[in-house]
């Protein structure tokens, strides 16, 4: 379960994916498979969530890691590089961005 707190020293990564409604479910399936079989087992992984907009043209992914380096190490694995090529083929674009929590309400 994600922990959202200003005092927690975690790395938050928010990734947005842009796709067509016709590829949304395929992309969601690929992302779910990646989390279930690989990402959640990587060092430093804490939690993640996948969110789909009503039009099925965007998926937002919120993930948390112990350290920035843990997330970066996961991305550099052969397994994730292969998966990212497949994910990229299913969407127009995707961009992971690292954030720090500024406020919580």
Automatic annotation (TrEMBL):
Asked if the record carries the keyword Heme, the reply is: no
Looking up InterPro entries in the UniProt record yields: ABM_dom (IPR007138), Dimeric_a/b-barrel (IPR011008)
Sorted alphabetically, the keyword list is: Monooxygenase, Oxidoreductase
EC top class, as a word: oxidoreductase
Residue ranges occupied by any ABM domain in the UniProt entry: 11-101
Enzyme Commission number(s): 1.14.-.-
Q: Which GO terms describe its molecular function?
A: monooxygenase activity
Keyword check for Phosphoprotein, yes or no: no
Top-level division of the source organism's lineage: Bacteria
| Pfam families recorded | ABM
What is the name listed in the Swiss-Prot or TrEMBL entry for this protein? Antibiotic biosynthesis monooxygenase family protein
Species the sequence originates in? Pseudohalocynthiibacter aestuariivivens
Its organism's taxonomic lineage begins at: Bacteria, Pseudomonadati, Pseudomonadota, Alphaproteobacteria, Rhodobacterales
